[in-house]
Each structure stands twice: as structure tokens, then as C-alpha cells.
Amino acid sequence: MRIPKDARHLFRLAGLFAVGTLSFLVIRSFIVPRSFGQYGHYRGASIAEIAAHPVHFAGHQTCETCHADVAQTKSSGKHAQVNCEACHGPQAKHADDPSIDPGKPDTAVLCVRCHAASAARPKGFPQVDADAHSNGLPCQTCHQPHNPAIAAGGSK
Amino acid sequence: MNITRRRLLVLLPAAAVAWESILAGTPEASPNYAMTEHWWSMLIDIPKCIGCGNCVRACQAENDVPDGFFRTWVERYHVDDWNLANPHVISPDGGKEGFSSTQDDSGKYFFVPKLCNHCADSPCTQVCPVGATFITPDGVVLVDQKYCLGCAYCVQACPYGCRYIHPTKKVADKCTLCYHRITKGLTTACCEACPTGARQLADLKNPNDPIHAFLKTHSVQVLKPQMATGAKVFYNALDGSVR
Amino acid sequence: MPGVEGFMYPNEVSLYWSVLIVLYPFITGLVAGAFILASLERVFRVEAVKPTYRLALLTALAFLIVAPLPLQLHLGHPERSFEMYLTPHRSSAMAMFGFVYLWYLMAVLVVEIWLDYRADIVRLSQSTTGWKRLLYRIMTLGSDNISQGALRIDERVGWLVTLIGIPSAFLLHGYVGFIFGSIKANPWWSSPLMPVVFIFSAMVSGIAAVMLLYMAATRLRRQPIDMRCVDTIAMYMFYIFIVDFSLEMLDLIHRIYEADESFRSLDFMVHTRLRFSQIVLQLIVGTLTPILLLALTQVTKLSAIVRKRIYVISASLALIGIFAMRWNVVIGGQLFSKSFLGYTTYKMALATREGLLVSIALTILPLLILAVLVKLLPPWTEQTHASIPAAAAAQAH
């Protein structure tokens, strides 16, 4: 096809655009992440990257493999459904290397978080006015945290 | 503006190296886990929540959540008699250290734990301009923090306030439903740490999951159903005042 | 918590979109508005506004070059912004920005300016020396054909580009409105009227800006202001302003009458946190006052000097009002909690990447770019002709 002489400059401009678009498409094909679109409009590899984050809470199943005795004590009491790390905090490091000290929770802070009396808590949930209840004595004087009922033999 | 030409010359090769790791990605981390066999959700049993803040602390410890931002938090509602439209809500530091005691006997009080609803039709993933946030084949809404621009459009699009821009990473951040745990057979950190079982991770595709029995006998609701987001965090006994 | 009243979801306390995101729709609006003004002459044959045609195009280009900067500066990772071209997410209004922007910049504005200026560029490439000559030679794309036939083709193609440019300008700014209007989570934004209101306010701001620039430039050049031209521009500005105002009122009345779940919360916000920027600046100072002033020029016979003053005042007020409107949309949309139970506060930083100083710089930058463009491609036809050496002029014929 012969381009009319007076329109040649327009074809130069169009050519410039074509070259620009083409080079964009070529560059794009090289730098789009390889796993993009594997499952949807995102980088498929990122799922595995997120799944590989380190775990901090070991999970009660892991705790119980070594601390079967505590699990036994706990299983018959009111705290049977309370997982170890709910009170002891994240223990994955301790589970990986038992020589790492798991630390001991401070019952003065811990117990009242759940059991301080408040009109906002569910009515059936055991709650006390801590100061009046124990006259300032630590909770574990009477209650064994792993099986808190006093009949279960709190103070040892 | 604050990138000089000299800094650019230093930055460019570094950026090329960084991009190479994004291009290639990393291999599968949990080879025994099949994404197509799960559809994750959570059940929140409001009458069981005692507002201790264990879930908030556990989440921060497990996921290195920056101070002042929350992947999960607990709100305390106080509704006076019939006045559902004007609840008094507080969430001091996300309820991380629990709530101060009250002896006020008027109206009713209850706690509402919040987290990402891992919506099936999520408005946040819809608006992401580059595909840096998405719902996985097993139903978890995640952020690809190596790809996110930090434009914050998803933060604006979330009706529940579950997203934030990480103050140092400068990318969108949110609850991952502890994806690194649930793909290894563990429950989420918040569920692990909840002392009363008020939070239960649930797999809707697993016919033996206890959630199915629970749903048969309880009235459950999702937050802001009018938003039609396909929210998958189900609340038992949710009060009409909650928003 | 400081600055918080009532209850906010904890992650809502800090704002995620700053003053830069206010600036962005403001600047894009000026682009779209200036282009619409240029198209008045080109497509709708409004001969009276011809003196501003080229200036309007250059203004649009100068502001369009700056438009993506506030977005870039606001991103957490500006170095990743090219991903928008790599893997644009089709369901995201923001992802389309890259493409609409490129389309508008390259396929519409640059082409139209090039076609319109080609004859001048060819002449300048022959009459200038040194780096300027080189620059103009590159801009000719190696073709110095400015024969009658070539120019006739340019004229026809240019008309077609402008014709495509009008919907493109609507698209460019309408989609900015859609970015906000499509967020169902945010009742302050979520409205199908949002893109339309954005387009009409954009036209008002763009027309006002070009009118002010034309009057200022003419004064600087010690030339008389073409009163027929500014009278016509002011008339168009007045009518478009009325449409814009009606649409905004429609939105407002609709919200008040429907009074949905968010209404009490938003109403409270407008009367407290946004009282100054919404009621005083946007409504009274920036909309009602300029509309009344412009109405005065339409219904009474005023002397040229008074009309000129009224035009300058009302155009300036309109710009303030429309900036306030962008502010109220962007910042206002983040001040209330999506729980509708509380409010937070926006504190503008001064010298940070998203601070006041950067915003001021970004507002001045397009004017500097415009000054350079005007030097390179003089929009004043009478001067260009005067400065052409006789030889080049002879060759042109």
C-alpha cells in the first residue's frame, strides 16, 4: 500500500506508538512473576511464602506429649478446656528446645483477667471481687490453676 | 522528590535482585496440605466471651502485629434497654489487656471479638489494583506483602475496619487466619489462646467439623450482612446493636 | 485516644489517604476541565474562545504530567507502581488509572498538541539554533512537510482526536469519581452520582483555571484581554457551575430524605468536623458566591473592567470551592467510623512525604511546567507569526 505523501508524518507517529506498545509487551512478558495467575489474579507462590511463617504457639497437643501428667490433672477440672498456652503464652521455642525456660505466669495478673467480677461478663461465669475474696493472698494459695476447685486440693 | 539520581543508581540493582525473588517465588511449604479440601471460617460464640483479651495478645505474639494496629480485637458493647441504635462501645487498646470491671447494672453488656471475616466476595480483594490481595482456594483472604503497593485502597474498601497499612513495612496487613498454622494442622493462635472456646476455627468443607452440628441448633449471623460480602465469621447470639 | 470522639474501630483511628489524595482528583479535574474548554472551540466551533485554545491544551498537559506524582508519593512502595501495568486487576477502578492516564496523555493530548503545533515546530526547527533546534527537530519526527495538503490532513485528524478526547476526558475524571463512588463500605462516598459530580466540578475548575491563566498571561504580555473570549468562557462556566451545583444538591437532598443508617453520623460530621471546609468554604464561599457573581454578569450590563474583576474573583473562589469539595470527599470520608459511632481527626503533617510543603510544591510544579511549555510552544499566534524569519515564512508557502 502506498502512503499518501502528505500523511507520512502521521504514520511515523503511529509507528512510534507501535514500537512503544510492542516493547512494553515484550518487557512485560519477561518481568511478570512466574507463578502469577497459578490460582487466580495473584502470585501463587505467595501462598506458600505466607504458609512458611514461623509458628509461636506450639499448640496443646505438642505440650501434652511431654506434660501428660499436667494434662491428666487438668482433664478432670474446670480448666479442662483451657489450653496450656492460654495462660503460659507462646511456647513453640520451649517445645523445640526444652532447655529454654518457659517462664512462669504471674497469677496476680493472670487470674483476674478472666475472673475479676464485672457486670459485663456472662452471668454464669465464675467471677470474684479479688480484693475482698482473698484479702490479698495469691490465688494459688487455695486454687491449683490446673484444677482450680478447692476440693481438688489447692495448696500443696 | 526524595530519591536522588545517585540513590537511584544504588537502588536499581538492589531492586532487580529483590524482583528476582518475587519472580521466582518459593516452593510449597506444607506438602501434605491440599488447598482444595478446605474452606475455612470461624465461629464466635458471643455468650462465651469473657473479654479477657487473650486472643488479642496471642495474635500479636504469633503474628508480630505492630502496636496500635489490630488483626483481631475485642469490643465491649453496652446497650441500654431497647436503644439498639445507640450502643456505647469501647475497645481500649483493642481490648488487649482486657476491660476494667464495671458494676453498672443498667441495660446489658457483652463482648464482641472481631477479626477479618475472610469474605467469599470480598470488597477488599476486588479493589486491589495489582492482585496483591486475594482469597486462596481454601477461603482465606491474604496479602502478598512482596507485591503490595501500599495504596490503601483495600483498607478503604473493608466495611469492618480489619485492614491497616503496616507502619514500617508500608504494605497492607491483616488477619491471615494464621494460615501458617492451619495449613500445618494447628488451630489459629487466637483460638488456641481463648480460654472459654468462644472462638472456634471451622472448616466448612469438612463434614465432621463440629460447626455443622452447632449451626443446626443455633441462630447465627455475620457482621453487616447488608454489605453482601459473603463473610465467613459466624457469630452466635449476635445482638442487633452490633455493627 | 487523642482526636477520637465516640468509638472508632481501632484500625480506623489514623487516616490512610492524606492531603495528596485530595490533590490528585483536584489536578486531574483541572486537566479534564481545561481539555473540555479546548474542545469547545475545536469540536463545538465556539469561535469566541479561540484565544485560549492552545493555552488550554498546554495547561491540560502541564497538569497531566504532574497528576500521577501525588499518587506515587503517597504509595507505601512507589517503586512497585509499575505492577499496575504488569498485572492490572480488571475489577479494580484504580488499576485502570494507568491505562486511562497513558491513553489520555499519549493518544489524546500529546497527539492533539503535536498536530496543532506541527507547522510551528517545523518553522522553529529551521529558525532556531543549538539545543533548541535539536529539540524541535526531534519533535518534527523528521518530517518537515507542512504543505497545504499535509496541514489539511492534520486539521481533520486533530478534529477527530478532540472528538475522541471529550469522552476520554470524561473517562479520565469520571473514573476518579468512580474510585470513590464504588466503595460500598463507605456511605459518604458510595453514590452513583459521584463520577458525574466529579466531571462537572472538574469542568468548572478547569475552565476557571484556564480563564485565570489567560487573563494573567495576557496581562504579563501587556496585551489587551479579549473580552468576547472571557465573556463566553464565563458564560459556559456559569451554566456548568449551575449543573454541578444542582447535582450536588440532588445528592444532598437525597441523602437527607432517605436518612439511611449512616445519615445521623454523617450529618453530625458535616456540622462539626467539616463545618468550615464543607459549609463555609465549599458551599458558601466556593459555590454560592461565584454562582451569584457570575449570574450578575449574565443578567446586568456591567462595564468591562467590572466584569473582568468579577471573573477573576469568581474563578478564584470556584477553584477554592472545588479544592474544598475534593478535601471534603477524601478526608471527610475517613473522619467517621464505619461503625457510625465515632469520629477521628486528620492532622496534616508539614514536612513529611505526605505533608503540606509537598502539596504546595505539587500545586506550583504544573505552573512551572506550563511556563516551560509556553516558552517552547508559544500559544500566542500573533507573536509566533511575527517572530518567523522571512525565509522560513516564504518556504512555508
SSE layout:
The complex is a heterotrimer of chains A (156), B (243) and C (397).
Chain A: H1 8-31, H2 45-51, H3 60-66, H4 68-75, H5 84-88, H6 92-96, H7 107-115, H8 130-134
Helix pairs in contact in A: 3-4
Chain B: H1 5-24, E1 40-45, H2 54-63, E2 72-79, E3 88-90, E4 108-115, H3 123-127, E5 133-135, E6 141-143, H4 153-157, E7 164-165, E8 172-173, H5 179-182, H6 189-193, E9 199-203, H7 211-217, E10 220-221, E11 233-236
Parallel strand pairs in B: 1-11
Antiparallel strand pairs in B: 1-9, 2-3, 2-4, 5-6, 7-8, 10-11
Chain C: E1 5-6, H1 19-42, H2 53-66, H3 68-74, H4 83-86, H5 95-127, H6 130-139, H7 148-181, H8 194-220, H9 227-258, H10 263-271, H11 275-299, H12 304-330, H13 332-335, E2 342-343, H14 356-376, H15 381-387, H16 390-396
Antiparallel strand pairs in C: 1-2
Task: Characterise the protein shown here.
The complex is a heterotrimer of chains A (156), B (243) and C (397). Chain A has 156 residues and is mainly alpha-helical. Chain A has helices spanning 8-31, 45-51, 60-66, 68-75, 84-88, 92-96, 107-115, 130-134. Chain A folds into 2 domains: 7-51, no CATH class; 60-152, no CATH class. In chain A, 45% of the residues lie in helices and 0% in strands. Chain B has one domain (37-243): Alpha-Beta Plaits, CATH 3.30.70.20. In chain B, strand 5 (133-135) and strand 6 (141-143) form a beta hairpin. The longest helix of chain B is centred in the N-terminal third of the chain and has 20 residues, at 5-24. The radius of gyration of chain B is 20 Å and the shape is globular. In chain B, 53% of the residues are buried. The model of chain C is unreliable at 383-397 (pLDDT under 50). Chain C has one domain. Chain C has helices at 19-42, 53-66, 68-74, 83-86, 95-127, 130-139, 148-181, 194-220, 227-258, 263-271, 275-299, 304-330, 332-335, 356-376, 381-387, 390-396; strands spanning 5-6, 342-343. The interface between A and B is large, with 45 and 64 residues.
